[in-house]
Specification:
EC number (chain A): 2.1.1.354
GO molecular function (chain A): histone H3K4 trimethyltransferase activity; RNA binding
Organism (chain A): Caenorhabditis tropicalis
Number of helices of chain C: 0
Shape of chain C: elongated
Largest sheet of chain B: 4 strands, antiparallel
Order of helices and strands of chain B: EEEEEEEEEE
Distance between the termini of chain B: 27 Å
Shape of chain B: globular
Order of helices and strands of chain C: EEE
Helix content of chain B: under 10%
Strand content of chain C: 15-25%
Radius of gyration of chain B: 14 Å
Subcellular location (chain A): Nucleus
Radius of gyration of chain C: 14 Å
Oligomer: heterotrimer
Number of strands of chain C: 3
Helix content of chain C: under 10%
Chains: A alpha+beta, B mainly beta, C mainly beta
GO biological process, one term (chain A): methylation
Chain lengths: 170, 116, 29
């Protein structure tokens, strides 16, 4: 009946709201992934079922802040030794900060050869970050995407272990 | 005529005529003209403010970020309505006890060396 | 997983952060 609901809703709302509907379905489908120890770094998220290509997996949720506020927080987090930042840039004006408030998408590890990618959707005027599968993901595989951190001087080693690993996150 | 600049300002501020209206976090609007030497002065009417809101006013170079308050960096000097604190490089110092509020006329003077 | 993020607050939706007056201040006498 969820599919029936989706079909009825989409016909009434038109396809542009497909993202809107799908992002709300996400909550109902949380069982798709689980949190567990990662071979890449600390903990990560794993697929609990086979996931088809270009499926919406999870939204990266946190506090929406302005860029300069994010710059100040990054400095403050570094001063307090809070690990790698969970700041995700949406556009030139705003950033989603999942360091202290958000959901467990913040635990998704980086890979230089990822099986997912992040996409910014605008739903009802609000920009939101959604992680999609880039290819079929088998049950038990770790979910990863390319963080695309800006290049910086002081490097953070990349532990993804992929053949084409770039060596650093930034 | 010196006006509020139509583009040298934060996009989220609304400017109609010479009146700037802002809400939520600090953002900056600058004048259409700058000064490079000598002594200059401008005045602004502080029309209204909702409870618990504050403003900052002052002098800024064009390099200062628009998505922050005046006095946040080394490129600007600000004066805050709350406690009348003066700010430069994000450091607030005692300046004019008691601060200012809606209904006040605010004057800002800058004195730049003529020959340097 | 919240055990691995000290005093972490889970959110269902993005939360718009309401900035403080002193958001950009380093020091304030």
């Amino acid at each position: 009946d969820m599919r029936m609901l989706q079909r009825r809703l989409l016909t009434s709302l038109g396809d542009t709201n497909n993202d809107f509907f799908k992002i709300n379905m996400l909550k109902a489908r949380k069982k798709m992934i689980k949190f567990a120890r990662s071979r890449i770094h600390g903990y990560g998220l794993y697929a609990m079922e086979t996931i088809a290509q270009d499926e919406m997996i999870i939204e990266y949720i946190g506090q929406k802040i302005r860029s300069l506020v994010a710059d100040e927080r990054e400095k403050a987090y570094e001063r307090r030794g809070i690990g790698s930042s969970y700041l995700f840039r949406i556009d030139e004006h705003s950033v989603i900060d999942a360091t202290k408030r958000g959901n467990f998408a913040r635990f998704i590890n980086h890979s230089c050869q990822p099986n997912c990618y992040a996409k910014v959707l605008t739903i009802e005027g609000e920009k939101r970050i959604v992680i999609y599968s880039r290819s079929i993901i088998n049950k038990g595989e770790e979910i990863t995407y390319d963080y695309k951190f800006p290049i910086e001087d002081d490097k953070i080693d990349c532990l993804c272990g992929a053949k084409a690993c770039r060596g650093y996150l930034n | 005529t010196v006006k509020v600049s139509s583009n040298d300002r934060a996009f989220q501020l609304t400017v109609s005529g010479q009146t700037i209206t802002g809400m939520e976090g600090y953002a900056m609007a600058r004048a259409s003209h700058g000064v490079a030497k000598g002594t200059w002065y401008f005045e602004v009417n502080f029309d209204e403010q909702p409870d618990e809101s504050q403003i900052r006013i002052g002098w800024s170079q064009s390099h200062a970020a628009l998505q922050a308050c005046v006095g946040y960096s080394k490129f600007s000097y600000g004066w805050r309505s709350k406690h009348g604190t003066k700010f430069h490089e994000a450091k607030g110092k005692k300046y004019h006890f008691g601060g200012f509020k809606q209904g006040d006329v605010l004057g800002c003077l800058i004195h730049l060396p003529v020959d340097a | 997983w919240s055990a691995f993020a000290p005093e972490f607050q889970e959110l269902e939706e993005n939360e718009k952060y309401v900035e403080k007056e002193g958001e950009f201040d380093m020091e304030d006498e």
